[in-house]
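Running log. JK asked me to keep both predictions on one page so they can be read side by side. First protein, sequence followed by its tokens:
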Amino acid sequence: MATAGTTRAGSNGNGKLITREDLQAAYSQFMGEGEATARAAAPKGLAVAGAVALAVITVSFLAGRRRGRARSAVIEIRRL
């Protein structure tokens, strides 16, 4: 019977024990690869997000400016 902290390998039948250390090593290797990929992609992602934000702000400004011109009437005041 397996002791606490170990598990028998699944259906392959080789009887090898998987220890807690084996699982932790595999998990840290997997997470390390993900962190390295995320760090490499972060500068590109920030640049794209900044460009999209700038484009949205510019379009919003121009649309509001056009609408403001259309709604405002030029009124001439004459003194009688």
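And the second, directly underneath as requested:
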Amino acid sequence: MALLAAGVAFAPVALAQGGSITIQWGDQGKGAPPEPHGKGKKGGPPPHAPAHGYRAKYQYRYYPCCRVYHDVARGVWFYIKAGDWAFGASLPANLQAELGNYVNISLDTERPFEFNEEHSRQFPPEKFKKGK
């Protein structure tokens, strides 16, 4: 015996000793819903573009003078060490002393340094040195 309430079918289910119940919603016999019409995945701009009106997954403070990124929410610093990008929970003392002003950057990637070339052009380091 099945119950029908507001277009939703409820089938009787035997309760386990733990008290579980199963409810199915919609037509479970068919496959996944059709893909929306249009190009590829929706959900915001590409990772390197400004996220106007869209909530990006990662928020960074970018320090142009030192080419350093800081993800405050995760407590991770991204910086250049011996010519390669490094990351850690703390920043080396020599970089801490040089940090100037920062800009807030919103991205959909956990690897902000992949867009550093673009960020360096957009935010020239000489304009963000300490004391300016």
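Observation for JK regarding the second prediction: Residues 38 and 57 are 23 Å apart (CA to CA).
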